Amino acid sequence: MLSSITGQYLARYQRLGAPDVAAGLLPVTGAQRRFLLVRSLDPAGRADIVPMFFAFPRGTVDPVRLRAAANHLAARHPALRSRPCVVRATPVLRPGPADVPLDQVACAPGEDAHDALRRTLAGWVADGPPLRLFLAQHGPDAEEVLAVVLDHTACDGHSLTRIVEELGAAYRDGLGPHDVAPAEAAAELATYRDAVLRQLDAEERAGSPRALAYWGERLGAVRDRAPLPRTLPTAGELPTGATELMLPSAPSGVAFPALLDACRAAAAVLYGTDAVSPIGYPWGGRPAGAEPVLGCFLNTVAFPADTSRAAAPDVTATEWWDDLDRADTPFDEVVRAARSGGAQWSGRLDGLLTVDDSRHRVPLRLGAVAGREVHIGGRQVRAPFAVSVTQGPELHLRMVWDRAVLDDRAAEDAFAALCGALPAEAPAH
Q1: What distances in angstroms separate CA 227 from CA 175, 348, 404, one per listed residue?
Q2: Which 8-state DSSP code applies to residue 223?
């Protein structure tokens, strides 16, 4: 049995050794490793980014005050001021001074604020600050739309909630980076390093021979089935298509296994009924004993959607619970185990599933005004299709797809199959 990828990484990080080399360098989690690897393999070097968009009445946002508040957060939280780099073949984060840009985005002729922000984010340069702000408005009486955007190596869902809350509080109190004492910054740096090392320890234990044997058997039938990207969309066409549906929702929402089965139905339409399609979903949390630092503490778990069988909620639920017992196994370890188990799989995912509970979402408040969160679609997606589910008073289903991989009609048929496979009412787990 080869030593675990996580163990190899920890050994390399620890060998950096000398204080003049390693003192300021931070280790990366398995999730961060994956994002950096995907970025390095992307022909355009695209980073995975997580944007949040908030609409405010015109004149609400004080750019100077907002940038100071954002730099206050970056000065406190190492993840928001650290950039990835490679030292002696070892990926690490290098902390730097707080430097959050706020760009005023001008609309080109024929654009509105949404178009301008979409165009701006499409040109995101990976080698830059992990937290950036963009402000756009269109017309003398239009709202202004603020984009708070993070590199995914710096955040997960838990981090997003805190960033919104703390950014609003720092804006309210007029705080800036100089309001973070050097001792506080040093303590936060040590706490962050401790949390990541605890995470890596958990990931190394989750890469045990027994766990790898489980994933080798679980994913051994996976094959690369989704077509590779072909021609790009025509000029003026968005790179992604999208469709959505609002449905009544039980107070407890829809069980996650039922959503996995619905994605199975979509994959059957797209890839045929004789495939095992890997559907990825994020799962994670801070390791035991670690402080709740901001950062990227999630894993991408691969669910093998066997399209040859009909939905079986009880079977899917049992499989899912078994998967969660081993959900800390890093994605790169899982891919290697799957190949050892016979999978002819590069690690590319056929689809993505994310679930959000809008009842726990907080608005960004700047002064006395609470922003209205808005959605701006049409951005690149990292898989042939991605399904997002928002559970709240209603069930909001949204599917986007890469037009360089899937045509619109097939994707829309897949979404119809997904919606048709959902139970009328199912308790959430």
Answers
A1: 50, 11, 9
A2: B
Residue closest to 222 by CA, chosen among 329, 349, 353, 410: 349
Q: Is the pTM of this model over 0.85?
A: yes
H/E/C letters for each residue in 15-80?
HHCCHHHHCCCECCCHHHHHHHHHHHHCCCCCCCEEEEEEEECCCCCCHHHHHHHHHHHHHHCHHH
Cα–Cα–Cα angle for 150, 151, 153, rounded to 5 degrees: 125
Q: Is the dihedral of CA 284, 288, 294, 296 positive or negative?
A: negative
Measured distance CA(148)–CA(314) in Å, rounded: 40
Token pair listed for 364? 């960004």
| 125 C-beta neighbours (distance < 10 Å), count | 9
The amino acid occupying position 30 is G
Q: Round to whole Å and give the CA distance between 52 and 374.
A: 8
DSSP state of 359: G
Q: Which two tokens stand for residue 79?
A: 């993840």
Residue 190: closest CA among 82, 291, 74: 291
CA distances from 260 to 80, 90, 303, 314, 351 (A): 33, 35, 8, 12, 11
Q: What's the full length of the chain, in residues? A: 429
Six-digit token string for 40: 């390095």
- Do residues 170 and 178 make contact, with C-beta atoms less than 8 angstroms apart? no
38 in Cβ contact with 49 (< 8 Å)? no
pLDDT in tens, the chain (429 residues): 457 899 999 999 988 876 645 668 999 999 999 999 888 887 788 899 999 999 999 999 999 999 999 999 999 999 999 999 988 889 999 999 999 999 999 999 989 999 999 999 999 999 999 999 999 987 666 899 999 999 999 999 889 999 999 999 999 999 999 999 999 999 999 999 999 999 999 999 999 999 999 999 999 999 987 776 766 556 567 889 999 999 887 766 788 999 999 999 999 999 999 889 999 999 988 998 999 999 999 999 999 999 987 767 789 999 999 999 999 999 999 999 999 999 999 999 999 999 987 777 788 999 999 999 998 988 888 899 999 998 877 889 999 999 999 999 999 999 999 999 988 654 443
Q: How far is CA 23 from CA 85, 232, 282, in A?
A: 15, 45, 31
Here the tokens at position 9 are: 């990484």
CA-nearest of 349, 356, 286, 396 to 52 is 356
